[in-house]
Amino acid sequence: MTEEIIIAGFGGQGVLSMGKIMAYSGMMQDMEVSWMPSYGPEMRGGTANVNVILSDERISSPILRSFDTAIILNQQSMDKFEHSVKPGGTLIYDSNGITKHPERKDITIYRIDAAEEASKLKMMKMFNMFVMGGFMKVKPILKTEYVIKGLKKSLPERYHHLIPMNEDAIKRGMELIRKV
Amino acid sequence: MEKELRLMKGNEAIAEAAIRAGADGYFGYPITPQSEILEYLMEANPQVTTGMVVLQAESEVAAINMVYGGAACGKKVMTSSSSPGISLKQEGITYIAGAELPCLIVNVVRGGPGLGTIQPAQSDYFQATKGGGHGDYHLIVLAPSSVQEMADFVEMAFDLAFKYRNPAMILSDGAIGQMMEKVWLKPQKKRSEEILPWATTGKPATREHNIITSLDLDPERQEKFNQKLIAKYREIEEHEVRYEEFMTEDAEYLFVAYGTSSRICQKALQLARAEGIKAGLLRPITLFPYPKKRLNELADTVKGMLAVEMSAGQMVEDVMLSVNGKTRVGHYGRMGGMIPTPEEVVDNLKTFIKG
Predict the structure, then answer these.
(1) What is A2-179's CATH superfamily?
(2) The complex's ipTM?
(3) Is B343 close to A39, i.e. CB distance below 8 A?
(4) Less Cβ around it within 10 Å: N or C end of chain A?
């Protein structure tokens, strides 16, 4: 099993940290993992993306052009990456700010209104974990218990009291995601 | 301390591995995309645990001369930078090579020339393997292709540097520096307390004084010294070549690539094989010494070799020298911080096959 993922959106949406949590969780599940961020000038201009690979085998290229799953969190990223999903692959997007919805027929498209829900619950900081929950529901690769272990390993202890809130956000995200 | 599994950036792995390898000192100056090395070391503050000195110098030139000084005392010292900063260090590097001192220099390469870009590139190959500074000298050059190797090669580089009294370089790039992967870290080694016989540590009554210099105004003596250096480089070429092969047994076409490009070629290899093209990959791990012999052998069995690098074509010259006309050699490169995708590499392999 190899899952090649891109997460793309605005800086500040937790794109890189969601990728990091995926990589940590994969590591906790004894998988091979890689996390390759865009660190260039585009990041400073507002958009950020990260390639995450989870695999049972040694990972070859950490840099990819086509993906099994794209998680898209703004319109610029939709324009750039809708066509990077492999045929038969998965596209997950948050509809907030999306003016042109994805149109491809050869992939499975899921919508998650995570920004709206996070704002309703006054949990905007947990936005990326709602999306993470959605991903975990439609691509059951990472198990919640390992995600929690991953959070414990990656977060400094002073933030560990926030972990239950992350777990709630993941659960809510699992309920929120809808096939288009 | 046991071996420890962590998820780290390549840059962080180098820094942690340096502490654990028992390094005595790090001297550096920040530059993207390698600043995490200095930042990590500053935060880890190994001065209080192992006694390792970590210092942000006032410039790259100052940093390399601090390395020169530390190495002259027989200490395990290092510096790191990225391309423009490594250019600044060249004077110090050739002095260190000329004074036959061991040290580690890390170059996390970005696009050039000049200030270029902050994105990954492999356009410092000539500088790393063919000199960089003036005079007839070589660095021992190691090219990691994963975060694990970023960690492992620190100790390997120090060992080789001390074995041959020669500066060693880890030639990485912004992609491996910035990406995170799993890494097994070795247990903490104690810093060495051994006083090396050639080191300038204060003259006791029992020996003549040790002199560290790269200057000899007598040309006959200097030539003898040059010959001694060359003999050392030949010995390194004899004993220290390292490389890795992927599906070379039945390969008809061979990718030759190091570092990040070799990872991309591993994927390209799978894609090409799925289309029925018998591709293989040779990944040089040491860029000096270069795996010339093995490439020359493989030239007998393949129909062609395609060097893939993030440069205008630098390592490809060593491939050509290695095969010496025995087989076709092509090149595919991206520049300026652009990274080729595996699909792009396969397309170029197909073009190469057509001739």
Answers:
(1) Pyruvate-ferredoxin oxidoreductase, PFOR, domain III (3.40.920.10)
(2) 0.92
(3) no
(4) N
